[in-house]
Design a protein that fits this description.
The complex is a heterodimer of chains A (118) and B (484). Chain A contains 5 helices and no strands. Chain A is mainly alpha-helical. In chain B, helix 4 (98-122) packs antiparallel against helix 5.
Chain lengths: 118, 484
C-alpha cells in the first residue's frame, strides 16, 4: 500500500484556506488577558518547522546540505522547546482568587467567564 | 507492506494527530482555566511529530542513503543542543524580558524555514515551477523574519537604543526589496523559464539570502521601540506563513496546517494590537512614529503637584474604591509583589480594588496580565479597558503606576497629539488620581501627558517599588496605632 502524501496545487490552496480560517476563528475568541501567552503559544506551534528540518537533514547528500540541514533542525528545535517553556511558565501563573470556592460550588459563575475585550 | 509504507503510515497518523492537537490546544488557550492544558496538548503533538520524524530514515532518497547514519547523528545532536539551550533559556528568562525572548524563538523558526528552503535550492530538489516559486517565497519571508526578529530583540533588550532613520530610507528599503525579488525572479527564470534548464547557481542563492537578511534588518531598524510588539507579532505571522509554504514544498500537511493557522492567528493578533493603538499596521511599519516634531506644551494648564507617598497611601486606605492602572514602569522597578502586598492591606480595610489593563500596557499586549499573575494577583481582579472604563467616574482613587501614554487624556481631546484617537483608560475621571513616576520625564512615546497637570491629580515621585514600600509602611503604621 502507498501511504506517501502528494499534495497538488489546488489541494494545497484548500488546506491553506481552511487552516487560515481555523486560525482566525480560534484566536478571535481569546481574551486580551491571554494575548501574550497566545502569541508565545502560536510561536511555539510554528516550531513544527523542526520536523521539516529533520526531513531536509535526513535527505542531505552533500556536506553543504548537511550543514544547512543541521542549522535548520537546531533553530527549529530551539523555536519549539523555547516556545513551550515560556508559554507553559506564563500560563501556570494565572490563578483566580475564587479557585478554592469554585471547587466547592458546582455552578460555574462569572468568575469563570472572562468577557472578551476589544 | 514494506518498511517504507509502514513509516509513511506512522508519520501520516502522527502528523495528523499533531495538527489536531495544535488547533485544539490553541482553542483551549482561549480561557485561563483551560489554557495550561492547551499548551500541554500542543506540546504532546509536537513531541510525537518530532519522534516520528526519525522514521523518514526509511524513506530517504538514494543519494542520501550513504550519509544516513551521519545525518541521524547530526539530527539528534541538533535537537538536543538547540532544544536544550532554548529550553534552559526559556525557563531562566525574567517575565519582563519575555517579549524579546519570543522574538528570538520566532526568529529561529523563520531561520529554520529559510534553511529548509536553502537545502531544497542548493540541492536542486524542487520539481516544477510552482514548487520553486513557493520555496523562494517561503525562504524570503522566513529569512526576513529571522533578521527582523533579531533587530526587534536588540531594540527591546536595549542593545540598539534609538531608531535609526536617514533621509530616503523608505526608498532605499523598497529598492533592496525589489532587488531581492529580482534575484528570486532570475533564479526562477534560470531554473525553469530558460530554454535549457540548468541547476541554480550557488552564488545567486547566496545573494538571494543575503539580500533577504539585509532587507529584514533595514525594515526593522527605523521602527521605534514602542512599536516592537506589533512588529514581533507581524514576524510571528510571517514565520507561520513561511513554515506553511515550506510545508507545501516538502509535502507535509502538518507543517502547512500549523504554519497557516499561526499565520492567520498572528495576522489577527497584529490587527488587534494595531487597533488598540489606533494605528494601522502600515502606519506602524512605514511611518516614523515619534519622529514627528515635538508638540508645544504651552496649552496645558496647571502644574504637576507632588505628594508624599505615605499621604497618598493613607488616603487610599480610607477610600471606598481604588482602580490601579499598572504600566511597564511597575515591572521595570520589579514592584508587582509590593503592589499586591499593598492591595491586600487595602482589601483588609474593605477597600474595593480593581486593576485596569490597557491592551498595550507593557511591552507586549497582555504582558501586564502575565506580570501581575506572576506576583500572585488573581485574574478575576484584572479588568480590560472596555469592561472597566465606565467605572472610573464612580471611583474614589485611580492609582497610575509606571503607566503614561495609556492614560493621556490628550488622546480624547487634542487633535494635534500623535496619539489622538487611541483608546485610553479614563483614569482622569476618578475623583482623585495618584501617579507614581520615577521622574518628570515623558513616556515611551515621548508625549507630554495632560493628566499630570490636572487639578485632581497628584504626582508621587520615586521608584515604584520604593514608593509602594513607603505606602505599605504608612498603612501598617495606621493599623498599629488603631490597635494600640
Amino acid at each position: 500500500m502507498d501511504f506517501s502524501i502528494h499534495i497538488t496545487g489546488f489541494v494545497a490552496l484548500y488546506i491553506f484556506m481552511l487552516a487560515a480560517f481555523a486560525g482566525w476563528v480560534i484566536i478571535g475568541h481569546v481574551p486580551a488577558i491571554l494575548h501574550t501567552p497566545l502569541m508565545s503559544g502560536s510561536n511555539f506551534v510554528h516550531g513544527i518547522v523542526v520536523v521539516g528540518g529533520m526531513f531536509a537533514l535526513l535527505n542531505a547528500s552533500t556536506m553543504q546540505e548537511q550543514a544547512i540541514g543541521f542549522f535548520a533542525v537546531l533553530l527549529g528545535a530551539g523555536n519549539a522547546a523555547g516556545g513551550y517553556a515560556v508559554t507553559g511558565r506564563m500560563l501556570a501563573m494565572f490563578q483566580t482568587s475564587g479557585r478554592a470556592e469554585k471547587h466547592r460550588k458546582p455552578s460555574h459563575t462569572k468568575a469563570n467567564h472572562r468577557p472578551k475585550a476589544l | 507492506m514494506t518498511m517504507t509504507s509502514v513509516a509513511q503510515l506512522i508519520i501520516g497518523v502522527t502528523d495528523l494527530a499533531a495538527a489536531f492537537l495544535f488547533m485544539y490546544g490553541l482553542k483551549r488557550m482561549s480561557s485561563p482555566v483551560t489554557a495550561p492544558s492547551g499548551i500541554f496538548m500542543a506540546g504532546l503533538g509536537m513531541l510525537v511529530a518530532v519522534l516520528a520524524s526519525f522514521l523518514y530514515v526509511f524513506d530517504v532518497s538514494t543519494a542520501a542513503a550513504p550519509h544516513l547514519l551521519v545525518n541521524v547523528a547530526l539530527g539528534v545532536v541538533a535537537l538536543i543542543v538547540g532544544g536544550g539551550v532554548a529550553w534552559w533559556a526559556g525557563k531562566k528568562v525574567a517575565m519582563t524580558a519575555m517579549p524579546q525572548m519570543v522574538a528570538i524563538y520566532n526568529g529561529m523558526g523563520g531561520g529554520a524555514a529559510g534553511a529548509i528552503a536553502a537545502v531544497e535550492l542548493f540541492g536542486g530538489k524542487t520539481s516544477g515551477s510552482t514548487q520553486l516559486v513557493v520555496t523562494l517565497l517561503g525562504a524570503l519571508i522566513g529569512t526576513i523574519s529571522l533578521s527582523g526578529s533579531l533587530i526587534a530583540w536588540a531594540k527591546l533588550q536595549g542593545v540598539i537604543k534609538k531608531p535609526l532613520r536617514v533621509r530616503g530610507q523608505q526608498y532605499f528599503n523598497i529598492f533592496v526589496l525589489l532587488g531581492t525579488l529580482a534575484v528570486a525572479g532570475y533564479l526562477a527564470y534560470v531554473a525553469q523559464g530558460a530554454a535549457i534548464q540548468r541547476p541554480l547557481t550557488p552564488q545567486l542563492i547566496y545573494l538571494f539570502f543575503g539580500c533577504a537578511l539585509i532587507y529584514g534588518i533595514l525594515m526593522t531598524l527605523p521602527i521605534g521601540g514602542a512599536d516592537m510588539p506589533v512588529v514581533i507579532s507581524i514576524y510571528n505571522a510571517a514565520t507561520g506563513l513561511a513554515v506553511g509554504l515550506e510545508g507545501f514544498v516538502l509535502g507535509n500537511p502538518a507543517l502547512m496546517i500549523a504554519g497557516m493557522v499561526v499565520g492567520a492567528a498572528g495576522t489577527l493578533l497584529t490587527l488587534l494590537m494595531a487597533q488598540a493603538m489606533n494605528r494601522s499596521v502600515a502606519n506602524v511599519l512605514f511611518t516614523n512614529f515619534g519622529g514627528t516634531p515635538k508638540r508645544k506644551t504651552s496649552h496645558i494648564k496647571g502644574s504637576m503637584k507632588p505628594i508624599a507617598a505615605a499621604d497618598a497611601g493613607i488616603f487610599m486606605r480610607y477610600a471606598k474604591s481604588v482602580i490601579i492602572v499598572p504600566g511597564y514602569g511597575l515591572a521595570a522597578a520589579q514592584g508587582q509583589q509590593k503592589l499586591f502586598e499593598f492591595i491586600k492591606l487595602l482589601q483588609a480595610a474593605d477597600v474595593s480594588v480593581k486593576f485596569a489593563i490597557h491592551p498595550v500596557a507593557g511591552r507586549m499586549p497582555g504582558q501586564m496580565d502575565v506580570l501581575l499573575a506572576e506576583a500572585g494577583v488573581p485574574y478575576d481582579m484584572i479588568f480590560q479597558l472596555d469592561d472597566i472604563n465606565d467605572e472610573f467616574k464612580s471611583t474614589d482613587v485611580a492609582l497610575v503606576i509606571g503607566a503614561n501614554d495609556v492614560v493621556n487624556p490628550a488622546a480624547r481631546t487634542d487633535k494635534s497629539s500623535p496619539i489622538f484617537g487611541m483608546p485610553i483608560l479614563n483614569a482622569d475621571q476618578a475623583k482623585q488620581v495618584y501617579v507614581v513616576k520615577r521622574g518628570q520625564g515623558k513616556g515611551y512615546a515621548d508625549i507630554v501627558n495632560a493628566l499630570f497637570y490636572a487639578d485632581n491629580c497628584n504626582m508621587v515621585y520615586g521608584d515604584a517599588a520604593a514608593v509602594l514600600t513607603t505606602m505599605i509602611e504608612a498603612v501598617r503604621g495606621l493599623g498599629a496605632k488603631a490597635a494600640a
